[in-house]
Amino acid sequence: MQTMRSHCLDIMPETRSDPSWLIKQRKTEVRIIKGWISKYYTDLLRFQGPT
Predict the structure, then answer these.
(1) Would you say which domain of life the source belongs to (predicted)?
(2) How far apart are CA 9 and CA 42, in angstroms?
């Protein structure tokens, strides 16, 4: 079993030569971050209550 590792490679601009594991990792990170942002705005609306 081979483990793919990088140090900050996932936050560098994409290139045509990016390996598939790196492309998948970036997509996973974007999905996670979108979830955090969505939860933030949902919680914000709930805590603010009716306006």
Answers:
(1) Eukaryota
(2) 31
Encoding tokens for residue 3?
Answer: 């483990």
pLDDT tens digits in sequence order for the chain, 51 residues long:
456 666 788 889 999 999 999 999 999 999 999 999 999 999 999 999 776
Whether the Cβ atoms of residue 39 and residue 27 lie closer than 8 Å to each other:
no
Contact 49/34 with Cβ under 8 angstroms? no
Q: How many helices (H) and strands (E) does the chain have?
A: 1, 0
Question: C-alpha 10: how far from its chain's center?
Answer: 10
Structure tokens at 8: 């900050």
